[in-house]
Prior knowledge:
It is a single chain. This protein is of the alpha+beta class. 28% of the residues lie in helices and 33% in strands. The chain is built from 4 helices and 13 strands. The strands form 2 sheets. Strands 1, 2, 3, 4, 5, 6, 7, 8, 11, 12 and 13 form an 11-stranded antiparallel β-sheet that branches. It is rod-shaped. The protein starts with a helix and ends in a 27-residue tail after the last helix.
Amino acid sequence: MEVPWRHLIALCLGLGFLALAIAAAVDLHRFTPVYEDVVCKPTSTGLSSVQVSPLQVTIAVNIVCKNPNPYDIAVYPAGVGRALLGEAQQDVGRVTSAETVVPAAERGEVAQGTLVMNVQVQLGFFETLSLMSSLLQGAFTIFFDLKLAVMIDPVILGLSAGLVEIQVQQSCGMQIQVLPSQDSGDCVCSDTGFDALIVPPIEEASADDMGISPDVSEETIEAAEQARDAFCGTVMALSLLLAVIIISCTIVSFLRKHRSKPAHGVTVIQRDASNAPVSVIGRRGE
């Protein structure tokens, strides 16, 4: 039984709409909830370069961000922060960072990415001399600004559900040591200013395991959920409707066309009555 190519195309189109409806249902489940908290925490620090006279120190701070969401989250620097020295909080340098992308979580496993921040401390010659006594005593405290922009852009069925940008500003502090040996301690951060920080000694681990989480408002989450439900629901309803109509019409049209044709191998013979021989029965000679 040969299927006409028009019926094949229509059937494939109907199955395509059915697959689209299934994909919308899968994405609806995958993006529920639409957002879970992303947590970033300074995990390690290190002195990447040190010069004593005049004092120039570059501190690398690794900030690990954990992403439980099924889409990538980009983290950008939101400006240059300050580096402050000691309890007097003397401005001694700048804080920079590079863009990083925290990958999407897969199969329920939380993904993570690392943002590297560079705290650059630069003192002049006379400033170094005035602080030399502090440097020789061992560890000292460095405070710095953490300024980040977190970009959240869920993609549903290949389309963006709406870009959300969240600003993160934290005040952080840590202890470092350049003499007699080079070392650095744990970094702690707070959103209430430097005065609220309790910087642990260089030889102790930080007791703060909460981390930093971008503050996404409930209104933003509710709006994203409504957009997700409306988009996925509309795609599922229209795709299912079109799939049912196209597949049903294709099957009905094919069956009707098949039934209207005679069966193969059967020959129908019609005899013309006008050409049939005629026999006459009667007596001869009459």
